Amino acid sequence: MQLTRRSRAVTAVGGFLALLGVVAAEPLYLVGGAGIGGWLVARQVRFARAAAAVDDELTLTLRPVRRRVADGESVSVTVAAEVERPSPVALAVTVDGRPTNDPVTVELAPGETWASDVARPSWPVAGEYALGDVTVTVADDAELFEQSIDRGVGPTVRVEPRAPRNVHVGEGGEPMAPGFGEHDAGRFGSGVEPVEVRQYVPGDSVRQIDWKATARLGEPHVREFEAATDRETMLFLDQRAGMADGPDGERKLDYARAVALAFVRSAQELRDPLGICAVGDGGILTTSEPGASDATLGAVRTTVTGATPTAGGDGVGAAATSADRTVTGRGMEVATAQRRADALADEDSAFAETLTPFLGARRSYVRRFDERPLFRAVRTHAAAGSAVRTVVVTDDAHRAELREAVRVASRGEGRVAVFLTPTALFDGDLADVEATYDRYVSFEEFRRELAAMDGVEAYEVGPGDRLTAVLEAGRARRRDAA
């Protein structure tokens, strides 16, 4: 409980009268000072009881119209305060506007039971935000006392980055079917999705017999169902400086984020384990192992929605230690080349003289990527052997590095999906559309090269309208040539 300026002034008057009575030996002043003090204490006791009762009876409502909004978009939030019976004290319910909005206050005068207001907060940066700290201030009708009561924080609102317009995901200008984050189980068994009807063979369970098909075909048939299964996925999101190419709201990273969020939504719906590794110019920014818990998938979503391009660098990861240079996967080829080159160094023969330069060149080529951030991140997780499927979302600016990273991830039974934003569609304003088409053709050749690898799928991601204009320019050129 706090004293207001008025109550301090009344207390000062009472104290002055009491002091004056003592100094002047006037009982009347003493009685006046004591009377003021007694009246003030009585008001304080009454206020304390009223404040406690109001705190028990007060019902607060903070109800946003939507729990998901785009960054920069405002959302209407109803702020209401209600008490069961008219209160002798005044109430002010304040919801602070953190982090960037003005606070909202709803006031109930003495005798009122309900009041409300509508706030319209907005947040410029993606993330999850509580609507603010809620504070109830109680004041008596004479404005002598007030008390602040902390009522916690309001509900959270998820702010997501604005999705770029006309997102195209496909191959060679042809859009792929929606739902690219989904997957089939890949095996038969108990489940809910029917797959095929086949003839009964000894050993099949009687429960699998499809009686309708059996009656129709005249002999026993069973129906197979697709078994439910989890698919563990590791998502690699490129946040290097080059992903900032393009206008605001339609940068490479904005389109890459749309793809990554599709995988997050699919994992949340199917309860599939999903992990993420965000890569910047200096190396790995954040990483989390695949998991299907709400906390893990929520953390992955937060990483994706809050992703921003890093500052420019040399494209090389942080300084490597001996522990980082694990001799597995591609690193084994480096070690093998080193041993063979060393073994041939002392050999005096035409064979050694011919092979030594090639072994040294191969070793140099592979080591060139050892500290490149994306290659190094993919290699580390591939060596751990934790993810069944690898998803890489990046651009085509580092083709040699990406090619080697995909080779590492696709070894063995690894499945890789690569989503590429073509630099040609984000660099410039398409003033020279024919030159842009030539650059897109080069990109498409690289995409097909990746897609031709075993276990690899490669797709383009970008603005559909720009891609349509570029492809139309190419068709017009071919018509003119014909």
Description:
By secondary structure, this protein is of the alpha+beta class. The chain folds into 3 domains: 2-160, Immunoglobulin-like (Sandwich); 185-229, no CATH class; 233-325 and 370-481, Rossmann fold, CATH 3.40.50.410. Helix content is 38%, strand content 27%. Strands 13-12-22-21-20-17-18-19 form an 8-stranded mixed sheet, sandwiched between helices. Strands 1-10-9-5-6 form a 5-stranded antiparallel sheet. A 3-stranded antiparallel sheet has the order 2-4-7, with no helix packed on it. The chain is elongated. Residues 183-192 and 314-338 have low confidence and may be disordered.
Please tell me the total number of domains.
3
Instruction: Report the biggest beta sheet as strand number plus sense, adding barrel if it closes.
Output: 8 strands, mixed
- Within the CATH hierarchy, at the fold level, what is the topology of the largest domain? Rossmann fold
CA radius of gyration is 35 Å
Question: How much is the average pLDDT?
Answer: 79
- What share of the residues lie within helices? 25-40%
Low-confidence stretches are 183-192, 314-338
The computed structural class is alpha+beta
Number of helices: 11
